[in-house]
Every structure is written in C-alpha cells, then in structure tokens.
Write a structure and sequence with these properties.
Elements lengths: L5 H7 L21 H9 L21 H7 L4 H10 L6 H21 L11 H10 L9 H14 L5 H13 L6 H14 L9 H10 L7 H14 L8 H11 L8 H14 L1 E2 L2 H12 L7 H14 L7 H12 L9 H12 L5 H13 L6 H13 L11 H17 L4 H13 L6 H17 L6 H14 L2 H11 L5 H7 L5 H10 L16 E2 L6 H5 L15
Antiparallel strand pairs: 1-2
Helix pairs in contact: 3-5, 4-5, 4-6, 5-7, 6-7, 7-9, 9-10, 9-11, 11-13, 13-15, 15-17, 17-18, 17-19, 19-20, 19-21, 21-22, 21-23, 22-24, 23-24, 23-26
Protein name: RAP domain
GO molecular function, one term: RNA binding
Organism: Micractinium conductrix
C-alpha cells in the first residue's frame, strides 16, 4: 500500500491532547510564497459590490439572496446592494432585503448597553430603502409588503404620509391573499408605529376579519401580536369590536397550555388597554393556566400582569394561591426591578384591593427610592395614590416621611422638565392630603399655580373627578388659596347642580374619596353586548387616569414576532 501523503498523515495523527484529529474537517489551502502571504494579509477585504460604481454591462448576480443574507454586515451594506441594482430586484429579493435590514438593526441595538446603534445601522437607511421600494409596490407580494412594514417597526420609523398611502393601496389590492402570519405581523407593526391607515380606513378591519375566518389556525403568538397591535392603535382611534375580541380570546383558550409568560402578559395587557373584560369563565381559564407559568415569568411580565388585572378589576377571580405565587416570585427577583416595576405593581395591587405583604412592600418602596432619578410625574403619582388607597399614613409603618419627601421633590423636578397633567396634579394633591403628608408652603403654592395653568389651558370644563379631589385636598390642607383657585375655575363654567354638589358640606371626605377612585362622572358606563364583555373594566377615574402615562412605550412590552 502506498504511503499516505504528509498532509493526510498529519490529519490522522493524534491531536495535541492525545485525541485523533478528524481528517474530514481539515481545510487544505494552497501554499503561497511568504511574500504573497504577507501581501494578502495587508490588503483589506473589499466586498465585490463596494469596489466601485457599477460597470457598463454588469449583470445582476443570479444568487443575490445568499449575498444579502450572509455577506451584508450592516444596514448600509444592504442599502448599497439594493441601490446598485435599483429597479432590478424581484419581490423575493426585496423581501429578503427588508428582513435583513431589520434583523441587522435589532442585532446592533441589542449588542449595545446604551441601545445606541452605529451610524451604518441608522434609521436613515431604513427610510431610504422603504422609499426606494415605492416604485416596486405593485410587484411586491403580501410577504414583501408585510416585511416592509415590519422593518419600519423595528426602526420605529413612520414613513411620510404619501408613502404610507401607497403601501396601504398596494396591500388593499392583495388583502385576500394575506396569510395569518402576515396579518399578525402587519397589525403588530402598525401598532408599534401608531400607524392608523387613512388611505384605506377599513384595512385593519379587513385584516382582522381575514384572521378570524381562520381562527382555528391561529397560534398563541399570532393572537397576542394581533391583540397587542390593536391595543396600541386604540389611542389613535381604532379598536376591534367586542365580537372580534370575543372570537380572539376564544381562539386562544384551547391553546393556553402552550402559552408562554410573554403571551399571557401581552394578552392581559392588551385587554386592559382596550378596556375590554372577557367573561369570568374565560378569565378564570386564563388565570389558572398563567399560574403554572409564574415560576418562569420575569419581573417585567409579573408586574405587567398585576397592573393588567388591576385595570380589569377582577379581584374575585384571583385565588390566594395565585397571589402568593406572584409575591413569592417577585421577592426572588430583586435584581430584576426597574424604574416602572414598583408603580406597576402598586397600581394593580391597589385597584385589586390586595395589599402586598410587608416584605414585598418594603422591597417595592426601596426600589422606588433606588430608581428615583428615573421616575416621572406619572410614576410618582401612581405610587402615592396606591399607598393612599391601601390605607397607609405618613409616619406609620414603612411609609415614612423620609420616603415621601424625596418623592414629592422628584415630582416637582420632573414637572419642571415636562409639565404634569391636571389629573396628575390633582391626584398628587389628593394623595398627599390623605396620607397626612405635609407639603412645604412653597411646594403647595407651586402645585396650585401649575394646576391653575393646566385648568386654564384645557378647553373643556374641569372634570368631576379633578374638582372633587382638589376640593377634598384643599379642605384637608386648609388651603384658602387652593379653594379660591377651585371656585374661580368652577363658577361660570358649570351649572348650579355641579356647584352645589361640589361645595355641599354634607358630602364629606368619604364621598370625595369614592369619586376619586371609582368613576369620572362624565358619562355612564357602556355595556357591550357579545360574549359577556363589558367596556368600563378600567374606569376613567383618578386611579385609572393616574396611570395613563404607563400605557405606552414605557412598558417596554415586546411580544415575539
């Protein structure tokens, strides 16, 4: 038998640690002279589409998709490649370009602690690619159209109105071809961007109906993405009907065993934001399934669920074992808290009238002080309001004066940077008065002046809830300046019925507190027929409005696409 070549003998010989080297994994390269090897190392690698302008007669490569997927390392490189063969990419190649750019941006965003991307992955590249795709919208299939808006959502880039209108028209023409995955991605992405279709106003309803026609095929993450997108679009003026929500919830019930903690978090949060409460049987099934996922849930998911349950006000459905499991898990997650964890939990706990245990309350208050520089006016308002609803008083137990004073100071500091709303100001004054926390005269005067300014700026009359809370606060504080401000804004703007109701000495403190926590008094609750869902699960009282600032991007909710 002929002797093996030296390279093969080396490949089959024992390794450095005594094991044998797999010859099939050896890469044999042609040996170059030492000078040529040095020159190769000195010349930087340049990708072929970056070596210069496109030459006359240069043909678009047949295999451009592998190049987009495996050779591009930044959003700028994706854009350069698309622009090099402008107008020549087919639907599949454009779809891959959208997907690759969105994926590269997310990778860069997640790799930096400060969440600041490099210039080569900036938003301007997404804007240019979406703009370049306008000429090809007529040739893009539904996957390409869905991926284009998904890319924009990754960058949080809202295209100009004319480009949005062109995309809406293109999708409307192909609405009957959209798949379930594409429907969930589109509605989710539109929600991220607060992109409410105006060129084709019925687009969302058509997409949702398309999904509900195949409800039995919806997976948990599809249902949650659709509901979350609907919740994000609700402040912009669109929300699904009660019947659609019933069908979405019903589609998810047989699959609750496969729900992840994030899925439960997204579903309950969406229902709370939409102010739609499913019937007790459906909610009981959801909560029973969620209890098995509590040990797997992180801090953000748990506090978001508690906030959502409080907004829905479903105390009778929450078992003692579920609440104990949530508390136990939170106590083990002290290192996972962020600035919104305590406000979220305290809001939900107060609405549910399920006070946290003393160890958990101490942890929540400690984390509030730890993240004090990050708190906003809405966060401070929620914390003080919740402590008041739980029956605490300043200087009693864990709620000390040393805890309350820096909170009020932080409110004033952030109020100077971003003025608080009238609801936040009235709730802060009401909560501090009920907590028996004394405000310095200068601070009280500044708050009254700010409330006067906000009340003057708003075009409508002061709401019953704001007026009642302010009346109760100023009477408790014995502030003639506050009462004078309140009467000045009420006299002449409300009828005699409202004035006599507010300034009737017989109403008392208990009545004031009730209206501060129950209903805004500006319209009856609306009951929606269909599946036992009622609108008004999260009333527009001081408690709900004090948490308004927590309904949006601050939640950092990220359903998985």
């Amino acid at each position: 038998m002929a002797a093996l070549p030296a390279a093969q003998r080396a490949a089959c010989s024992p390794g450095a640690e005594g094991g044998r080297v797999d010859a099939g994994r050896q890469l044999v390269q042609r040996r170059l002279p030492s000078g040529a090897q040095q020159r190769r190392r000195d010349v930087p690698f340049v990708k072929w589409w970056q070596r210069g302008p496109r030459k006359a007669g240069e043909v678009k490569p047949v295999k451009l998709i592998p190049t987009l997927l495996h050779w591009t390392d930044s959003c700028k490189e994706v854009l350069d490649l698309v622009l090099r063969y402008e107008g020549e990419l087919d639907s599949r190649e454009m779809t891959v370009a959208f997907q690759r750019m969105g994926a590269l941006f997310l990778t860069d965003l997640g790799a930096t602690p400060d969440r600041v991307v490099a210039p080569e992955n900036a938003k301007e590249h997404c804007a240019r690619l979406f703009s370049e795709a306008q000429a090809q919208l007529g040739t893009l299939d539904t996957q390409g159209l869905a991926t284009a808006v998904w890319m924009c959502a990754r960058f949080h880039y809202l295209p100009p109105a004319e480009e949005r209108a062109a995309w809406e028209r293109a999708l409307w023409e192909r609405r009957f071809d959209v798949t379930l995955i594409e429907v969930s991605n589109i509605i989710f992405s539109l929600g991220v961007l607060h992109w409410l279709p105006t060129e084709m106003p019925a687009l969302n309803d058509e997409l949702l109906e398309r999904a509900l026609q195949q409800a039995h095929k919806l997976t948990p993450w599809m249902v949650c993405n659709i509901m979350w997108g609907c919740a994000r679009l609700q402040p912009d003026g669109w929300a699904p009907s009660a019947d659609c929500l019933v069908r979405l919830v019903e589609a998810s019930l047989p699959q609750l065993d496969s729900f992840s903690p994030e899925s439960f978090c997204a579903m309950l949060f969406s229902l709370a934001c939409l102010r739609m409460r499913p019937d007790d049987a459906a909610l009981t099934a959801v909560l029973d399934a969620f209890q098995w996922q509590v040990p797997k849930s992180n801090n953000r998911q748990l506090v978001t669920v508690v906030w959502s349950l409080g907004a829905l006000q479903i105390t009778p459905l929450i078992t003692e074992s579920l609440w104990d499991d949530i508390e136990r898990q939170l106590l083990q997650q002290a290192d996972e808290f962020n600035f919104s964890s305590a406000p979220f939990f305290l809001f939900g706990s107060a609405r549910l009238q399920l006070n946290p245990s003393e160890p958990l309350l101490r942890l929540l208050l400690a984390k509030t002080i730890e993240f004090l520089p990050d708190l906003r006016t809405g966060d401070v308002t929620v914390v003080l309001w919740a402590l008041c609803r739980m029956g605490h008083k300043a200087g009693e137990g864990v709620v000390t004066h040393q805890f309350l004073q820096p909170l009020v100071e932080r409110f004033m500091q952030h109020n100077a940077e971003r003025p608080a709303t009238l609801r936040q100001l009235s709730t802060l004054l009401w909560a501090t008065s009920q907590l028996k926390a004394e405000l310095p005269p200068a601070t009280l005067a500044a708050l009254i002046a700010d409330a006067d300014a906000r009340a003057t700026e708003q075009r409508r009359a002061m709401s019953t809830t704001d007026a009642t809370m302010l009346l109760n606060a100023f009477e408790t504080m014995e502030s003639p300046e506050g009462l004078a401000f309140l009467k000045r804004h009420i006299m002449g703007r409300w009828g005699a019925r409202h004035r006599s109701r507010l300034f009737d000495d017989e109403e008392g403190e208990e009545g004031s507190e009730g209206s501060a926590s129950d209903s805004d008094g500006e319209g009856p609750e609306e009951t929606l027929k269909g599946g036992g869902i009622s609108k008004g699960g999260a009333e527009e009282g001081a408690s709900a409005s004090a948490g308004e600032g927590l309904l949006d991007d601050e939640l950092e909710l990220r359903p998985v696409l």
